């Protein structure tokens, strides 16, 4: 799952090399479609997970990710990247993301948030390692071989995953492979899903454009691409620590604090950073930390407003809806950049506003689900 956290370095590379003749509003579809399929196809993976053995999902998903990475190493044209990374990679990733999170939720109850957070740190580790392998491998062995080596790493990781992951609960044969529209009639679940939609809408803007922003303000290529690794370095503790705190203070409470912190960092620090390296680096690491909860706590929050037996379908439905924001978020950001003559100020305000709206919606959902008091834990 490290590719989902390495979008910025790929976006920056292809935009300045293979696809340098295309605007960001076009190349952005490559990466937003990958993230969209990763989340949206969970609506099918979720019910299949409920009804059958998890290995029916993770084995083909693992094979697909390895094949995608190897083919990615020889891509040159827009349609090459779109068919390989966006379609094959996104579909394969969706077979891994939802089932791995759902499996963790079955094995833990009291420490579910912490366990989920620890599992999600793996994506952050990949988000550090993959960009560094590209950054330091490309000048020595070339971009293509750097990607192939990442493919070998994915192969080894996938073998261990397929051997170790298994379900705890019995199969639920009544699970249907469709969206659970009736669940949206439950206001607390619907508001939780809306809040996650807004947060996912916002989070992939910095994740996709932080390296391109660094290039825009005049940084050298090596330092600009390194920002993706710094972002994920912050995200590793940012996924585990909020999970640990959520088990004690409540997942909704911790999620609200982190989304508010993200909105503040984007609007107060990134927007005013300009060319200041200290400010941009500080924002990158701090945002990585606080945004980690956007990935780690979303499935936990869903589990707080549904029965554990319905978790696979409910989480798949939530991620399907959230994926719409992911799909259009990056291209919209690219269009805003183009409309502002290359300036990144517009997308910074756009992302920060979405995070602020997510905070307000989470508070609303929490109030309906458990009450409005400050000491309420859910």
UniProtKB/TrEMBL annotation:
Keywords: Membrane, Transmembrane, Transmembrane helix
Transmembrane portions of the chain: 29-49, 56-74, 80-101, 113-137, 143-165, 186-207, 252-273, 279-306, 318-337, 343-365
The UniProt record lists the keyword Transport: no
Its membrane topology: Multi-pass membrane protein
Cellular compartment(s): Membrane
Keyword Membrane: yes
MF terms (GO), sorted A to Z: transmembrane transporter activity
One GO location term (cellular component): membrane
InterPro entries assigned to the protein according to its UniProt record, in alphabetical order: MFS, MFS_dom, MFS_trans_sf, Proton-linked_MCT
Protein origin, superkingdom: Eukaryota
Domain Major facilitator superfamily (MFS) profile as annotated: residue spans: 1-369
Similarity comment text for this entry: Belongs to the major facilitator superfamily. Monocarboxylate porter (TC 2.A.1.13) family.
PANTHER family reported in the protein's UniProt record: MONOCARBOXYLATE TRANSPORTER, MONOCARBOXYLATE TRANSPORTER (EUROFUNG)-RELATED
Name by which UniProt lists this protein: Major facilitator superfamily (MFS) profile domain-containing protein
